[in-house]
Design the sequence.
């Protein structure tokens, strides 16, 4: 594995640019059913706040990612390319070689306390899922949520993991002092499609049950209907079934996002498509001939259909959360800390 460009070892960049010390990497495997076949690389990160590139269309500037790689093993995951930076395979390696930033909570607490930090919104789960299976062992999110709560720092979480319910008391406490946005990703309710494209995730029904539990506890929760997969999950009947199920879960909103295939994910998804749906290969080549995104006309069609169904079932698209009136602790003005850039979700 190539750690050189990320550590302070020989050939590394200066200390400010390195992500963790060479001596800090500990590799572990656990012979238990839930982790069989997965290797964990435990590191002590040098920075945990990541700046989103300026060209991104995301409505936030900063993210926190306690993990790299994801055992959810979604065949379309756009973050696969990030494993290439470590000389790891962006296919099976992304699913089974998980980097764990074991000091994430303490590091975040320190960076939030810096006089340079101005209290900007922090998004989590926009790169890899912070509630993937590894979180059940490493328990990094409770400390991260507590650090954000202490500073009344607004944050949001996007997840496919039902493990988020473990931290419900912490989320409720945080929502009393700052803006907390929770969104669960459910692109479809087709169980056969789920088993092949998202094999490491909880079933869609379990995720919607988590939405129901969150909203029942007073935590407003939306659903990111992502991805809508062309020719496999986009029929009028499938869209209707998914939006109906989202509405029945009590979600505050539903927002569709059509499958996008960036380098790294594109190759892995194409290989999966050739194996499972070879008759669709040429259709995908035509649909994505213009790049990583489906054509605008197709995206608009899906968005219109989902919004019409949402209106029929009494829910709407995502909307900004209502502002809490609890003041954020004042900090001296100054430049924000420079952190590593992160790929954006959109």
Sequence:
């Amino acid at each position: 594995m190539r750690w050189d460009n990320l550590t302070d070892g020989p050939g590394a960049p200066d200390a400010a640019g390195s992500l963790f010390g060479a001596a800090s990497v500990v590799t572990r495997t656990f012979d238990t059913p839930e982790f069989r076949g997965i290797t964990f690389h435990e590191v002590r990160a040098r920075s945990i706040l990541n700046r989103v590139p300026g060209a991104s269309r995301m409505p936030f500037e900063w993210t926190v990612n306690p993990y790299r790689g994801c055992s959810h093993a979604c065949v379309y995951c756009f973050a696969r390319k990030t494993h290439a930076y470590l000389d790891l395979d962006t296919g099976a390696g992304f699913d089974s070689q998980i980097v764990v930033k074991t000091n994430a909570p303490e590091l975040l607490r320190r960076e939030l306390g810096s006089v340079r930090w101005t209290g900007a919104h922090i998004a989590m789960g926009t790169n890899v899922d912070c509630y993937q299976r590894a979180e059940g062992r490493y328990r990094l999110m409770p400390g991260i949520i507590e650090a954000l709560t202490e500073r009344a720092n607004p944050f949001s979480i996007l997840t496919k993991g039902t493990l988020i319910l473990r931290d419900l008391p912490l989320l409720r406490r945080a929502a009393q002092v700052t803006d907390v946005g929770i969104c669960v990703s459910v692109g479809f309710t087709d169980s056969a499609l789920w088993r092949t494209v998202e094999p490491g995730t909880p079933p869609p029904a379990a995720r919607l049950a988590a939405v129901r539990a969150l909203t029942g506890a007073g935590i407003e929760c939306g659903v990111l209907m992502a991805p809508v997969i062309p020719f496999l999950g986009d029929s009028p009947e499938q869209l209707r079934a998914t939006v109906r199920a989202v509405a029945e879960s009590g979600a505050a909103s539903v927002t569709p996002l059509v499958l996008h295939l960036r380098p790294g994910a594109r190759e892995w998804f194409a290989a999966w498509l050739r194996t499972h749906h070879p008759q669709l290969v040429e259709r995908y080549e035509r649909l994505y001939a213009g790049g990583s995104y489906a054509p605008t006309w197709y995206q608009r069609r899906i968005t219109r259909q989902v919004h019409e169904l949402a209106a029929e079932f009494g829910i709407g698209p995502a909307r900004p959360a209502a502002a809490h009136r609890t003041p954020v602790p004042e900090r001296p003005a100054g430049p924000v800390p420079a952190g590593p850039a992160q790929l954006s979700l959109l």
